[in-house]
Amino acid sequence: MASPPCVSFLKLESHNHFVKSFAVILVFLLINVSSFHSYASPTTSATSMMVEQAKALLEWKSSLSNQAKSILPSWGQSVPSNYNVTISSSLFNPCNWTGIACNMDGSITKISLPNMGLKGTLLNFSFSSFLGLSHLNLSNNSLFGTIPSHISELPKLAYLDLSMNQFSGGIPQEISFLETLQILYLHQNHLNGSIPASVGNLSNMTVLYLYQNHFSGPIPPEIGNLTNLQDLNLCTNHLTGSIPSALENMTMLTSLDLSKNSLSGSIPAFLCSLSNLTRLFLNRNELSGPIPQQIGNLKNLVRLKLSNNHLSGSVPHELGNLTKLVSVHLYLNNLSGHFPPHICKGGLLRRFIVHTNHFRGPIPESLRNCTSLVRVRLENNEFSSNVSEAFGV
């Protein structure tokens, strides 16, 4: 007996509903499988990157001395050749090693290993394996050899500290490719040659320390292109020539130290336009001529060292207008004339060292009544008043 037409219709409708529901579920599953695949792929890629970074670090570690190797036990010894990226990643993660920091993707962003007793070179350091590195600190170790040119293969590097090691040779020209570099510490090494003009291309730099090396030749005028620089220290080298006029462009400078070199010529007046300066050290050079009157424009100056040069003439009275001065060193020059009458106008002066010049006349009352002074040296001058009596000694 044939089924009623209404029953056949209901069965057909139920079947169609089932097919539609199944199709929806299937589409949902396909979307989620696709999403999972999209999510899983970067994770696998990131883990593979972490392993490559780990291998690069361990290859460098293996080039160090045995003593240095034992200092980094958390780094392990080597990546097994049969290492399974997807299974073993939790067991082998350089982000957990001493001195290593990573971002959320597992890319190493910071390598900080100061004072670790590391001994070796950077020749086997694979800089190109660390494209996310922004901070590299290997200071105060026993690293030697040259700074390799492939250090330029760090496109995100902002902080580089290789100071207090035994590096020799010159600064590689390729350092100019580190366009994001802001802080560069290369002081207290055995670096030599001239300071490369290419340093002037590092336009984001705020701090440059090259002191206590063996650099020679003139200060490159291109250094004046570093208009964001706040702290420049080139002291204790063998630099010659005059102070380049391009430094006038470095209006952000708060500290300038060119001391203990062989710089010649006069103290340029344009230095006195660097109104943010708090420290100006030009001592122990071959500078001659007068102290520029414009020095009174350095209203923020706290410490002034012009000693051990061949400066002549009188000290500008404008020096007395620098009310933030704490320390003044003018000794071992050929300065003459009277002191500025208001040398302690700000009441902050603690050290006033001006011995071995040709100063004459009375000792200013402002200096005699300067209660902040803890050290003063006036001997070997031609004062008309007795120094000991003036200070009640």
From TrEMBL:
Which Gene3D superfamilies does the UniProt entry name for this protein?
Ribonuclease Inhibitor
* Pfam families in alphabetical order: LRR_1 (PF00560), LRR_14 (PF23598), LRRNT_2 (PF08263)
Tell me which GO cellular component terms the UniProt record holds: plasma membrane
Q: Which residues are in the Leucine-rich repeat-containing N-terminal plant-type domain?
A: 52-103
* Keywords associated with the record: ATP-binding, Cell membrane, Glycoprotein, Leucine-rich repeat, Membrane, Nucleotide-binding, Phosphoprotein, Receptor, Repeat, Signal, Transferase, Transmembrane, Transmembrane helix
The subcellular location is:
Cell membrane
What GO molecular functions are on record for this protein?
Answer: ATP binding; protein serine/threonine kinase activity
Q: Give the record's membrane topology.
A: Single-pass type I membrane protein
Q: Residue ranges of the Disease resistance R13L4/SHOC-2-like LRR domain?
A: 125-236
Tell me what reaction this enzyme catalyses. Answer: L-seryl-[protein] + ATP = O-phospho-L-seryl-[protein] + ADP + H(+); L-threonyl-[protein] + ATP = O-phospho-L-threonyl-[protein] + ADP + H(+)
Q: What class of enzyme is it?
A: transferase
Instruction: State the superkingdom.
Output: Eukaryota
Name assigned to this protein:
non-specific serine/threonine protein kinase
Give the source species. Nelumbo nucifera
Higher taxonomy? Eukaryota, Viridiplantae, Streptophyta, Embryophyta, Tracheophyta
